[in-house]
Automatic annotation (TrEMBL):
NCBIfam families: Dxr (TIGR00243), PRK12464.1 (NF009114)
1-deoxy-D-xylulose 5-phosphate reductoisomerase C-terminal domain sequence ranges: 144-227
Binding-site positions, 1-deoxy-D-xylulose 5-phosphate: 123, 149-150, 174, 197, 210, 215-216, 219
Residues that, per the record, bind NADPH: 11-14, 37, 39, 122, 124, 203
Gene that specifies this protein: dxr
Domain 1-deoxy-D-xylulose 5-phosphate reductoisomerase N-terminal: 5-130
CC cofactor: Mg(2+); Mn(2+)
Pathway the protein contributes to: Isoprenoid biosynthesis; isopentenyl diphosphate biosynthesis via DXP pathway; isopentenyl diphosphate from 1-deoxy-D-xylulose 5-phosphate: step 1/6
Listed EC numbers: 1.1.1.267
GO molecular function, one term: 1-deoxy-D-xylulose-5-phosphate reductoisomerase activity
SUPFAM superfamilies assigned to the protein according to its UniProt record, in alphabetical order: 1-deoxy-D-xylulose-5-phosphate reductoisomerase, C-terminal domain, Glyceraldehyde-3-phosphate dehydrogenase-like, C-terminal domain, NAD(P)-binding Rossmann-fold domains
Record's protein name: 1-deoxy-D-xylulose 5-phosphate reductoisomerase
Family per similarity comment: Belongs to the DXR family.
Keywords, alphabetical: Isoprene biosynthesis, Magnesium, Manganese, Metal-binding, NADP, Oxidoreductase
Length: 380
């Protein structure tokens, strides 16, 4: 049967790879909605190729521009409302959430309200309001399948085993672009250096998060919500090769790990075809050629974002929302050249210190905490 798919963030790293996966199985998938941001040239190409009925862009002007270039007339919407509409208003069965940042939250909630399954790449959504998203999905009987490589790995390792059998899970971390630098050597590193991830080709924001280790912090919180595990049963281990994508230790001391070449098309495809496994153009992993794999303890002093993430996760309520939003604002400032690399974590730490968490927050309290944290992290 054909699966109808809407993609939020179709012009980004995950979005384009999702369309690549879909293009290999035209009989299995139909694209019903595409939402991009500012890159209308690429979006126009995608629209011409996949012919969705609904398209969203960042602004009204871009919507006009897009309309003028298309050979047919899909419905074109724009802005934050357009994103929500593209998540909920098409006849998609599943929505791939691949926009960056907590702007993905309201579209994800709208998609669930409209009865759509979620293939979740946008981890900021779960960090910001995991309780709202997970409870809505549960209430509606909808699945949230992980696209993030570590969470896909855990999902595959669990293979339906109940939570009670899990002793702990371990998320692997590449160590990011500065993994061979000491803390002192981080003083004065450039945006260009930070954007060179050793193993993965990804969008700018997540690449910086990987370098600060905020990405792994967000992933710890994402795992907490997806697998309903307390923080003391979620570990992180540095694994520079990114070949073991994560692993689960079960009650009987067996460890099951998921391995493969670092290529996001594998977890993206699995989230779209689950429970089926279909061929991908990704090659086979040759362990003999690789020879060795390496592992290092996570040092929370070297990577302070790791410590702040565990602290925020354990506090709960709006603390993770603040961790995430302060980080988003600080990373944007770093990318604009306004602050140094080490100031990212200083701004996140300060926002967390100044925040009095609200527990069991509704959507309004989440949005308020998010806006407050962005304001905090925008001041030096
Ligand atoms: N890249 C990866 O390998 C992985 C990514 N993820 C997660 O997936 C998400 C996406 O990451 P990634 O693909 O790397 O990010 P990119 O920066 O490559 O892509 C982001 C997407 O969001 C769109 N977007 C940005 N702002 C807006 C806006 N205001 N309105 C509508 N759309 C907007 C962009 O549109 P445009 O470019 O047209 O402006 C683009 O399509 C993140 O949450 C990330 O953490 C998780 C695991 C791996
Ligand atoms: C590909 C993916 O899932 C990223 O989230 C990846 O985890 C980033 O690599 P790090 O391990 O460096 O954070
Ligand atoms: Mn990941």
């Amino acid at each position: 049967m054909t699966k109808r798919i809407a993609i939020l963030g179709s012009t980004g790293s995950i979005g384009t790879q999702t369309l690549d996966v879909i293009s290999h199985y035209p009989e299995r998938f139909q694209v019903t909605a595409l939402a991009g941001g500012y890159n209308v040239e690429l979006l126009a190409e995608q629209v011409r190729q996949f012919r969705p009925k609904l398209v969203s862009v960042a602004t009204r002007e871009l919507a006009e521009q897009l309309k003028a270039t298309l050979p047919y007339s899909p419905r074109i919407v724009y802005g934050a409302e357009g994103l929500v509409e593209s998540a909920a208003a098409s006849d998609a069965d599943s929505v791939v959430t691949a926009v960056v940042g907590s702007q993905g939250l309201q579209p994800t909630l709208a998609a669930l309200e409209a009865g759509k399954h979620i293939a979740l790449a946008n981890k900021e959504t779960l960090v910001s309001a995991g309780h709202l998203v997970m409870s809505l999905a549960k209430e509606r009987g909808l699945s949230i399948l992980p696209v993030d490589s570590e969470h896909s790995a855990i999902f595959q390792c669990l293979n339906g085993e109940p939570r009670e059998r899990i002793r702990r899970i371990t998320l692997t971390a590449s160590g990011g672009s500065f993994r061979d630098k000491t803390r002192a050597e981080l003083d004065g590193v450039t945006v260009e250096q930070a954007l060179k991830h050793p193993n993965w080709s990804m969008g700018a924001k997540i690449t910086i998060d990987s370098a600060t280790m905020a990405n792994k912090g967000l992933e710890v919180m994402e795992a907490h919500w997806l697998y309903e595990l307390p923080y003391d049963r979620i570990d992180v281990l540095i694994h520079p090769e990114s070949i073991i994508h994560s692993f689960v230790e079960f009650e009987d001391s067996s460890i099951i790990a998921q391995m493969g070449l670092p290529d996001m098309r594998v977890p993206i495809q699995y989230a779209l075809t689950y429970p089926d496994r279909l061929p991908t153009p990704v090659g086979s992993l040759n362990l003999a050629e690789l020879g060795k794999l390496h592992f290092r303890e996570m040092d929370q002093e070297r990577y302070r974002m790791m410590r702040y993430a565990y602290e925020a996760g354990r506090i709960g309520g709006t603390a993770p929302t603040v961790f995430n939003a302060a980080n988003e604002a600080a990373v944007a400032r770093f990318l604009r050249g306004e602050i140094s690399f080490l100031q990212i974590e200083e701004l996140v730490e300060r926002a967390l210190e100044r925040h009095a968490a609200i527990f069991n927050p509704g959507l309004e309290a989440i949005l308020e905490a998010d806006a407050w944290a962005r304001g905090e992290a925008s001041q030096s």
